[in-house]
Structure formats: structure tokens, C-alpha cells
Amino acid sequence: MDGRTKLALAVLGIIVILIAPHLFYQLFLIKVICFALFACAFKLAMGTAGLLSFGHAAFFGGAAYVAAHAAKVWGFPFELAVLAGAAAAALLGLAFGVISIRRHGIYFAMITLALAQLVYFVALQAPFTHSEDGIQGVPRGNLLGLVDLTGTNAMYYTAAGIFLIGYLIVARIIHSPFGKILDAIREDPARALSLGYDIDRFRLLAFVLSAALSGLAGATKTIAFQFASLTDVHWATSGDVILMALLGGIGTTFGPVVGAVVIVSLDEFLADSGLPIQPIIGTIFVLCILLFRNGVVGTLERWLGPSAPKQAETLVT
Amino acid sequence: MTMSLPVLSGQLLVGLINGSFYAILSLGLSIIFGLLGIVNLTQGAFYMVGAFFAWMLLQWLGVGYWGALILAPLGVAAIGVILELLLIRRIYRLDHSYGLLLTFGLLLIIQGSFVYIFGTAGQPYPIPDELRGGYNLGFMFLPKYRVWVVLVALGLCFATWYSIERTWLGRTLRAATEKPSLTRAFGINVPRLVTVGFGLGVGLSGLAGVLAAPIYAVSPLMGADIIIVVFAVVVIGGMGSILGSIVSGVSLGLLEGLTKVVYPQASSSVIFVMMILVLLIKPTGLFGWEK
Predict the structure, then answer these.
(1) Chain B contacts of A271, Cβ < 8 Å?
(2) Are B238 and B284 within 8 A, CB to CB?
(3) Of A157, A250, A257, B140, which one's alpha carbon is 20 to 30 angstroms from that of B29?
(4) What is the model's pTM?
């Protein structure tokens, strides 16, 4: 893609973000935005660093609880509460990483799943998370003491701003020298090692960054919706984010955003229809893996671009 | 703290029962992993389906426990074979992670359909007449059915271990795992063997589900709760190790029971904490090795 197309797409993206609240329900859009950021953060771990994490809900939900507690009980202002959530997720990511980073592939997936379940049990039993009730009535507060966020409009644009910052960070990381080293490690760990890269350290750093950005998404969502619940830390949420990233295109930067838009919309639509959500999501998952491993954006790129890769056989393109 | 003998022995019995189920499920997981190289997330769902088949056989066809003990695992194995032939077969040449993701999708379909039809509430399943009652040991009451479950589980574990390590089928299965093309050269139909192995692995889960039906309520979510624990058990025991699955399954069940007496709050997380400790000390698991 040349610079002009990129610029055109970026302008288009900004226009969409500005117009969308006039067409759709704002809280729905905030949900889309938060999951889009979550999916981009996940892409950083799986698509770029090649770490199939089945425990990302722990970062998303863990940050949600910390941000909710900070805003409600400690009276943190909006931005500090969100940052506290992201920082907690980064620490959690570091802990997960130190334990599991030495195991690869499916082992890594199983270990992160089990660790996330441990976080789920903590959320179920710790006093500050209020078990089944979750943390309710979280105040939104003010942005930097200036903008009152009680209005849904203000909250939407703030969330959109956070998303844009997060997305730019992810895009920057992917295209930085650090991102290229991660590509190399993912595609050929042995060769990367022989070139002198400390592969576990690079993987760990990518994983912590991914966890922190997932936390940013979870914390923003919890403050916008004013509650944190067990759903956010449940393994089904880890599955959802994998599906979003895969469906959109795990090998692309923008794909996870598309995946999040599709899945959140579908979820919203199905919730009112009375149709079984889980089996439908599961069917999409299965079809995606059997037939459509490059995802929506990956497939589009393949059609449009001359040198794009064929259908993925390893996990990443 | 009530550290009396009846409480302790009662919880250890519960632990032994849970551990038996962990062992059977992780055994099935290990067989399938060894053979196909995929981590089968549907293992828990098939355990749930086995329990539901038993319940349906009783409610709709009037077939009791003993019939279900044979029919339900066969039904589960048949579904497993169909899924293997239609879907799972297509991804063997891909990265193993795709297997995990594919079975995750299947798990959502199977579990979600049962939740949609039956709701999340549990259905009771009666203990068969022959196994009602129990033995009074003086310090505790030992229900007959629980003794039966532990005996069957141990028998199953031994039979599986024996048939994998000591019989023609096991030898061929292991050969097909190690060197598929060479095994084919000896005139053995490896793809069919893989299908049989998969059926066997999920059939074991189905059988565990029937055994579990009278103890726990038959609920669509019973498999999801247990499978993540079983993952931790398998990571502790060492992936793909039959002996590791059995030993760590039973002993972690006991550990869980013991924790319920000593520090109940930690009982649901103690296995995960053990997993962390084992990973820090021996990353390949207690009985495992890196391929």
C-alpha cells in the first residue's frame, strides 16, 4: 500500500468514527471500540509474536476490576483509573509470561488458559470484586478534570480517542524494528536465536505490551459501562477475542478491528433474536479455521495485492 | 477448623472421585494428543454429552444405568468419529494450534446447543438400585456408588495403560504416532487407526460422563468446568504421558480434597497453583519430555 492510499484510509477511518454516533446507538459503538482495541492487542501477541494466548480475558477483565475499584472506592479520576487498569494488566501479563513463555504453541495456550482460570477464581472469591454481583455503579468522572463524561457522547469520543491511540501504538510496534524481530522469531525461532536474539525476552516484552493494551481496552469498557463483571474474566471472552482477530485476519493490522465489529454486531443482533448465540459463534469459528484462515482483511489483501501470501498453514501469515 | 477424621476422610473420598474423573479425561486427552498432535478441547463437552446420553436414554427410552454405561460411550465415540472424518481430519497438516482452535469452535457448538435446549440448570440422575446404600466404616459412611466409580476408574486406567503399552493395537498406535509413513509401509491403514484412536479417546470421556451422572447433576456446563482443570492436570503430569495423566489426575484430586479441609477458599485454585510451581521447576511436566 502506498502512502496516498494509507492517508485516504486513515481519513476514511476518522470520518467513520465521527459519523457513526449519528447512525448507531453510542453504547453499542463504545463496546465495538473497546473490543476492537482488545482484538488489536491480542493480534500483537498471536499474529506478531506468535503467542497463542487462551487467557487474554484475564488482562481485559483484570484491568476492568482494577479500574472499577480505583474509580469507585479510591476515587481515582477517569484517566488514572484507566491507566491503573492497564498497569495492573501489564503486571499480570508479566507474571503470566514469566511462568509460561518458555513453553510454545499449544502448551502456551493451555497454560495461559489455566492461569486465566486462576484469575477467574480470584475474581469469584476476592472481597473487592463482589463475586456474582461484580462492581456496579462505577462513576465515569471527568476527563483530565475538564470534560464531563456522564454524557454518552463525550464518553464515546473519549473511548474513540483511546482506541486511536491504542491502535497507533499497535501499528507502530508491528512496523518497528522490534516488530520485525518478532516476525523473525515467529517464523523461524532457531534462526533468530542463532542471530543472537534473546527470543524469550522479545516474546515476553510483546506479551506484556499486548496485556497492557488489552487492559486499556477492558478498563475503558468498564468505566464507560460503569460496571465490571465475571463475564469479562471468563474463558469465553478469551475465545471471543481469538475469534475476532482470526475472523478479521490475524496477519493484518486492521483485520482485528473488522473482526470485532462483525462479532460484536452479531452478538448484539443475536441477543435480541432469541437464536442460540454460542453455537452460531462456534460455527463461524469452525468455518473460519477450515476455509478462511487469512480472515476478511487478509483475503481482501490477497485479492488486491500482487504479492500477498496464500492461505495460511502455519498460524500466522 | 474442623480437622476431624470423618471430615478429612469424607473430603479425601470426594477428592479421590474427582481425581478419578480427572484421570480418565486426561487419559483421553493424552491418547488423542499422542496420536493426532492436537489438544482436544471438546473432551469436556463429550464428557457432558455422555452424561446427557445416559439421562436421555433413561427419560426418553427407559434404558437404565447399565445399558447407558455401554450405549452412551458408543454414541459419543460415534459422534467423535464423524467429527474426525468430516472436520478434524482436514487440519492435520496445519499448525497444531489450529486443532486447538477448531475443537474450541466445536466445543462452543456442542455446549451451546445443549444450553439452548436444556438450560443451565442440572437434571438429576438416579443411582442404580444395585449400587444404592453403603458401608458404615465406623468413622465414616462409604456410599457403594462411589466405591464403584473409583474401582471402574482405576480399572479403566489400567486397561488403557495396558492396551497402549502391551498389546498389538497399542504398539501399532504408538508406531503410527512416531513414524506414520513407515507404519503405512507395513500395510497398516494409519488414517483409520487415527480415527479409531480419536473415537477411543472421546468414548472414554463419554464413559466418564455416565459414571459422573449420578454423582453430579447432569448439566450442559459440567464439561466446561472440568476441562480447564484437566488441562492443568495434563500440564502437571506431562503432555502425552499415559502414566503421568493417571498419577497426576488422582493425586491432584486428592490434593484438592485435602485443601477443602485445610483451607477451603483455595480448593478451586490449588491445582492451578500446583501447575505454576511445576512449570517453574520442571517446565515439561512431572512425567513429560520435550519432543
Answers:
(1) none
(2) yes
(3) A250
(4) 0.86
